Amino acid sequence: MSEAGEEKGKGRRGSLWGRLKSGLGRTRNQLASGMGNLILGEKEIDEAALEELETALLLTDVGLDTTREIMEQLTGRVRRRELNNTHALYESLARLLEDVLTPFAKPLVIGDERPFVIFFVGVNGVGKTTTIGKLARQLKAAGHSVLLAAGDTFRAAAVEQLSTWGAREDVPVISQGQGADSASVVYDAVQSAAARDIDVVLADTAGRLQAKTNLMEELKKVQRVVGRLKEGAPHEVLLVLDAGVGQNALSQLKEFDAAVGITGLILTKLDGTAKAGVIFAIARSLADSGRPIPVYYIGVGEGADDLRPFEPAQFVAALLPEEAGVLPEEAGLVPDSKHGSTAS
Ligand SMILES: Nc1nc2c(ncn2[C@@H]2O[C@H](COP(=O)(O)OP(=O)(O)OP(=O)(O)O)[C@@H](O)[C@H]2O)c(=O)[nH]1
Ligand SMILES: [Mg+2]
To answer: Is pLDDT larger for residue 233 or for residue 209?
Structure first.
């Protein structure tokens, strides 16, 4: 077994950290504009600072329940005089935010099954195909052989888009062209991967079908057919969610999970939104539903390196605005390199 995110010889952690930070820039700016009293440095905490913080969290889509809980914790600590200045409050906030996410952060592990089959599902436009391309590169860099299955046979340009990624990353792509049977393409791909002794199959699926065809039924069929060919396959069914859709992500999660049983999440386009806080709402909803589905990766841009293993401490550090007069290192907001092995 090995962690999918391990990339060897990547010494430029700084630049990856910088990309994460700049990717989360919109949400950070949104937070900063609402948290003036808090980030001005070490001051006494007043009502205004607490109220500002509450509003700022809500505006970035952290969600009502999580925001309320965090504010209750912080207010309680302030009353008990455990926190007596804005800097301490800020640090406490960072830890509380991290705690919400930690149970849902896991690295994607490529199991021992060969081929290890991963399905990508999600509504149209969320970033399935792009994510497959990015992950193909990272898996290759980690030493795995990879094959792509062009299971989206509905959208005209889908096969071409996947083939372009395949050519760029030098990995084989199995396709049958537009209109073909999706289950048959993925079946072929798994068979072909087995024959070539390939480690991982990344299977693209459609985000949309002809109005009269039911997407969920189609996905179930692909799943069934592949399961008959290889017991236990698909080994992972990853739901790709666009962070920009806000709370809609929660209903997509419910619907896909009910149909095909989601085993992991990928949250894309965190860079394109000021509401990246939705990840806390997702974590909260997973906790409430008793389905602790892990978030394996986050997408913070269109480049291959912008797909990153989800690491809560880093995520929160990149999300929160820097305090005036406090170096991020001092505030413990820059993760030290020991924890970065899956994120670099
Ligand atoms: N900014 C940004 N753009 C992204 C990210 N992930 C994907 N995209 C872009 O989102 C657009 C749609 O991505 P696709 O990979 O084609 O989405 P899809 O889910 O395969 O869409 P369908 O095939 O129509 O179902 C592309 O322009 C991607 O470059 C991300 O993390 N950040
Ligand atoms: Mg696609």
So the answer is: 233
